[in-house]
Amino acid sequence: MGRTLSKNKELVRIVPLGGVEEIGINCTVYETKDDLILVDLGLGFSEFDYYGIDYVVPDLSYVIRKVDKLRGIIFTHGHLDHIGGLQYFLEKLNFPKVYGSEFTLELIKVKLEDEHLLGPMLEKFTVVDENSSLVLGDFKVEFFRVNHSIPQSLGLYIRTDSTSIVHTGDFKFDNSPVNEPVGDYAKLAKIGEEGVDILLSDSTNSLKKGHPISESDVARGIEDVVERARGRVIIATFAGLVGRLYQIFETARKYHRKVAVAGYSMYQTLGIAQKIGYIKIQSDMIISIQDVKKYSPSKILVLTTGAQGEPEAGLSKMAFSDYKGFSISKNDTVIISAKTIAGNDRSVQLMIDKLMSLGAIVKQSEDLDLYTSGHGYQEDQKIMINLVKPKYFMPIHGYQYFLRAHGETAKSVGIPEGKIIIAKKGSVVEGNRYKGFRISKVFNCEPLMVSGSGVGDVLAPVLKEREQLASYGVVVVDLVINKERELLKDPFVFSKGFVFVKNNTSIIDTAQQIVQKTFIEKAKTIKDINELREVISQELAKYLYQETEREPVIITIINFI
Ligand SMILES: [Zn+2]
Ligand SMILES: [Zn+2]
User: Fold this and answer.
1) Phi first, then psi: what are they for 88, rounded to 5°?
2) What is the pLDDT of residue 236?
3) Ligand 2 is a single-atom ion; what residues have CB below 5 A from it?
């Protein structure tokens, strides 16, 4: 009885560890005194100008400290910004239980398998769907279907004895989706009737008015282009836009084109989509890219990655005539079914120019109905708020600017300003049905950088060095000395990737003299060899900067003979 009473009044903590000051690294903690669950554990693509940083992942220290009360991780859907961080934390999180739809979990398994991490996790997966109900410690979790751009996306209805929460995940309301049911308005309305204390909702497109066009409009847009194409059709999109892949296969089937798939991630996703029965592909429908030339051009559709002009991806390689066994030719129609992400405009434009110069007809999503977003616009966001009718509103998934815009939208449909919570990474949002919600404190929670297989081991000095190397190259000083610390020959100075603005040899000569002079002056007084190396490097750096205004990485090697 006592337990029930105290649970009844208990404060619930909501802590975003990512996804509130950026697009990506979505990860939210829900916590009571005894229990903790995590919703999503995604990665972000590094937007930093850092060298060799592949991804960023959330800082999970907060959860790792409390790992004994972690009851599981629930994944809303299978996009990398929601699932991609898991593989880096399995051990630190004691190989947690994970929950998600069949498609989501299959994508996670494939990722873990690729990294040889699946073994200890095999027993940890539980498939859920919109009818499931989980009890994870104090948390009761139910699900509702949403439309997005990947199958089996789910929103969450999370309850404790003291609080009721809706967490949308990524969503839009598409009234004519392709190959999936319409999002569950009725269930959301019912949840709203039960009384929701706080709504956490997707802000990705909160700056956009209206609704995105429907997936069925895009299906028609793509079909129109394929129908009119005389030669081969090449379609570039993201492997994660699984709904789009389905539309493309349907179109290929209708127009009797064989499909050649170029791109590992695309293959992988298609394999899973087939496994769960989302896409049905007859074995004679897929051909290898090398076999394309055996068919008449009007019988071919090539599906590839690289819609952002990424140099290593399929379409770019084709554009720059660098794709083994396949080249673009006159009368090919290229469809780019993706939004150009800000910052990639130039590489996409260059790629399109190249494709056109090879004789291809290029159709980009901007011209025609060839792409739509998986995230709702302002009108979708209003529908969500109107159905759920929350007392408090907390926008998530987006930059602070996006969250604020979403807050304005919430205000326009009646959420009072004082009940809109704009959180940062590490904001501890605390409250319950009786007390309402507020940010009780904020702790430091900067994302960790992933470089190769290392997480968080790349620190600022290393990044500085990489930046220096890339910008200015390296200058190496080689000294040979004896035990008495006498130079046995002239210092040798050479460089890689360092650009001399003035006469090259005179700078090198002077550099050698400076090294020699510094060594002779300091070798007797500075006993520590590392310090001596450091002083020589610094003197040389000073000189090179004076002469060239450049800061190469300087490596001084002292050899004892
Ligand atoms: Zn998504
Ligand atoms: Zn997302």
Assistant:
1) -85, -10
2) 94
3) 81, 170
Tokens at 183, concatenated? 């999002």
Give the chain's domain count: 3
Pick the catalytic residue from 167, 211, 375, 406.
375
CATH number at residue 285: 3.40.50.10710
Scanning 155-214, the segments in alpha helix (DSSP H) are 185-194
Q: What is the whole-number distance in angstroms between the Cα of residue 19 and the centre of ligand 1?
A: 12
Quick check: is 4 in a domain? no
Distance (Å) from CA 284 to ligand 2 centroid: 34
Write the pLDDT tens digit of every residue in 181-217: 999 999 999 999 999 999 999 999 999 999 999 999 9
* Distance between Cα 171 and ligand 1 center (Å): 8
State the distance from the centre of ligand 1 to the C-alpha of 374, rounded, in angstroms: 7
Same domain, 202 and 183: yes
Q: What is the ipTM of this complex?
A: 0.99
Tell which wins on pLDDT, 475 or 147.
147
Sign of CA dihedral 243, 123, 19, 385: positive
Pick the catalytic residue from 184, 197, 202, 332.
202
Annotated binding site for Zn(2+): 77, 79, 81-82, 148, 170, 397
- % the chain with pLDDT above 90: 69
Query: Which residues are known binding-site members for Ca(2+)?
Result: 52, 54
Share of the chain above pLDDT 70, in %: 94
pLDDT in tens, 497-546: 776 545 567 888 888 999 999 998 888 888 888 888 999 999 999 988 88
Cα–Cα distance for residue pair 351/346, rounded to 1 Å? 9
Q: Which ligand approaches the C-alpha of residue 240 most closely?
A: 1
Task: Compute the average pLDDT of residues 254-269.
Answer: 92
CA separation for the pair 27, 60 (Å, rounded): 9
Q: Residue 149 CA: which ligand is closest?
A: 1
Note if 202 is an active site residue: yes
> Alpha-carbon dihedral of residues 202, 205, 211, 215, nearest 10 degrees?
-80
Q: Are residues 444 and 468 in the same domain?
A: no
CA 133 from centre of chain: 29
- What CATH number should be reported for the domain holding residue 512? 3.10.20.580
Could you list the residue range(s) of the whole structural domain that residue 250 is in? 215-364
Give the number of whichever ligand sits closest to the CA of residue 153: 1
Give, as one character, the DSSP assignment of residue 266: H
Instruction: Specify if 311 maps to a domain.
Output: yes
375 a catalytic residue:
yes
Average pLDDT score over the chain: 91
